[in-house]
Write a structure and sequence with these properties.
- The protein is globular and about 70 Å long.
- α3 packs parallel to α4, α7 packs parallel to α8 and α8 runs parallel beside α10.
- The chain is an alpha/beta fold.
- It has a domain of about 325 residues: TIM Barrel (Alpha-Beta Barrel), CATH 3.20.20.
- Helix content is about 30%, strand content about 20%.
- The strands form four sheets. Strands 3-2-7-18-19-20-21 form a seven-stranded mixed sheet, covered by helices on one side. It has a seven-stranded parallel sheet with strand order 10-12-13-14-15-16-17.
- The chain binds N-(aminocarbonyl)-beta-alanine and zinc ion (2 copies).
- One zinc ion binds next to loops.
């Protein structure tokens, strides 16, 4: 009987800290050896000329959420995780949303049931708290954290999700007691409503109004407020989907003061601009709706500020914020109300499959970041931040055998026809990249190769996590 189930031979192994020529030996779904000359294996994959990286972990995706009446998300668990696998990912983290007035526990249970048996890659579920009632803060949230749902997101905007300052403070307090990880969507609700009302009254209802209704100052103010609340409670928080210069400056300022503020950005803020919401000269006046997401993409100066923040270590993770809606669909971007005003265009863009190639190409291939930074920002730091480390996020004995083989020289042009998501478009249509994930291995099994997904739904598990006891603070 061979010593290994799988040997990946002749590649260059890249982790957050090292780049080495080595073979990887896998047994029982785990990495058991990283060494020279691993040969005694049931299956050998020749990785000559390829990079062997930790499988991508995307800690911010929206899958099969209920966006409200008349609107349907374009991906269920099967299609989203199929796209994730094709795009070099081995784990994604979607959100169970508490409906206002409803039970958080019931929402989590129902969401988990939807995921079980459907996923191609492993899934770890965050929560979204929309209604921090006494029952949620006192019982449901502590019990769910103990059960392995150790992270949640709160919103400072959106009618059905926004928390006021007192609610944010109360939730932060419980997170501190329980050692839970809090993600914050930082955009100011009242300012957005004020601007949206004015734009609509002035007849500015086209998709570009979305960008005008959410300028950088709206994000900067909310980021500062979230940072202040976190300082007051002495709680580490993650400010997610940071879009531009102003919020980045707030986070850099907080970090320089020693505050435990962590940050996430996404490829859309590195490659798209608000101009895309104008439709870029396309005949279709609604085409800009394809780029409507919150916060909106900004401008080239802001892209550079975010790249600079990445290089300076201000950002911990680059996620997709995959939030897919079909474009040409009355239950998607072109719903009847969305045609009447930007306010009703569902927020979000598909990106789980394109996150890694876009970021690799713009980051590594263009010389902005190192391969090791890429591994940290797309896998290792996600695992560390959200309680999946040392099970996932690196390449060493004991880790899950979750690996992505990259051809750093392969040129590809992103097109809807080569993607696997449920959306009917990609915001990166025609985007040329250098560097491509040619094989995705999860738990020692090849799940995607050269754009073909080979796994069956149900291969991926729903993972439980545990908080680091050091993060649980009573006082
Ligand atoms: O526009 C976005 N980002 N939609 C998804 C929900 C969120 O705020 O992350
Ligand atoms: Zn958000
Ligand atoms: Zn999101």
């Amino acid at each position: 009987m061979p010593e290994f189930d799988l040997a990946i031979r002749g590649g260059t192994v890249v982790t957050a800290s090292d780049t080495v020529r080595a073979d990887v030996g896998v047994r029982g779904g785990r990495i058991v050896a990283v060494a020279e000359g691993i040969a005694d294996a049931a299956r050998v994959i020749d990785a000559s000329g390829l990079l062997v990286l930790p499988g991508g972990i995307d800690s911010h995706v929206h899958i099969a959420q209920d966006p409200g009446p008349g609107i349907v998300m374009a991906d269920d668990f099967a299609s989203a995780t199929r796209a994730a696998a094709a795009g070099g990912n081995t784990c994604v983290m979607p959100f169970a949303v508490q409906p206002r007035g409803g039970s958080l526990r019931a929402a989590v249970d129902a969401y988990r049931a939807k995921a079980e048996g459907q996923c191609h890659v492993d899934v770890a579920i965050h929560m979204i708290i929309s209604d921090p009632s006494e029952a949620v803060l006192g019982q449901e949230l502590p019990a769910l954290v103990a059960d392995g749902y150790t992270s949640f997101k709160v919103f400072m905007t959106y009618d059905d999700l926004v928390l006021n300052d007192r609610q944010l403070l109360d939730v932060f307090h419980v997170a501190r007691l329980q050692g839970a990880r809090v993600m914050v969507h930082a955009e100011g609700y009242d300012a957005i409503r004020y601007l949206s009302d004015r734009l609509e009254r002035a007849g500015e209802t086209a998709p570009y109004g979305h960008a005008l209704s959410r300028p950088e100052v709206v994000e900067r103010e909310a980021a500062h407020r979230a940072i202040s609340h976190a300082e007051l409670i002495d709680l580490p928080i993650v400010i997610v989907h940071v879009s531009g210069r102003e919020a980045t400056e707030q986070i850099a300022w907080a970090q320089a003061r020693g505050l435990k503020i962590r940050a996430e950005t996404c490829p859309q803020y590195l490659t798209l601009t608000a101009e895309h919401m104008k439709g870029l000269g396309l005949d279709d006046p609604m085409a800009g709706a394809k780029y409507v997401c919150s916060p909106p993409p900004r401008d080239v100066q802001s892209q550079e500020a975010v790249w600079s923040g990445i290089r300076r270590g201000i950002f911990d993770v680059v996620s997709s914020d995959h939030s897919p809606f079909r474009y040409d669909d009355p239950q998607g971007k072109l719903n009847p109300r969305g045609k009447s005003s930007f306010r009703w265009i569902p927020n979000g863009i598909p990106g789980v499959e394109t996150r890694l190639p876009v970021f690799f190409s713009e980051g590594v291939s263009k010389g902005r970041i190192s391969l090791n930074q890429f591994a940290a920002l797309t896998a290792t730091n996600h695992a560390k931040l959200y309680g999946l480390y040392p099970r996932k996020g690196s390449i060493a004995p004991g880790f899950d055998a979750d690996l992505t083989l990259w051809d750093p020289n392969k040129r590809e042009t992103i097109r809807q026809e080569i993607l696997h998501h449920g959306a009917d478009y990609t915001p990166w249509e025609g985007f040329a990249v250098t560097g491509w994930p040619v094989m995705t291995i999860a738990g020692g099994q090849v799940i995607a190769e050269d754009g073909r997904v080979l796994s069956e739904p149900g291969r991926g598990r729903v993972l439980d996590r545990a908080v680091d006891p050091a993060e649980r603070r009573d006082a």
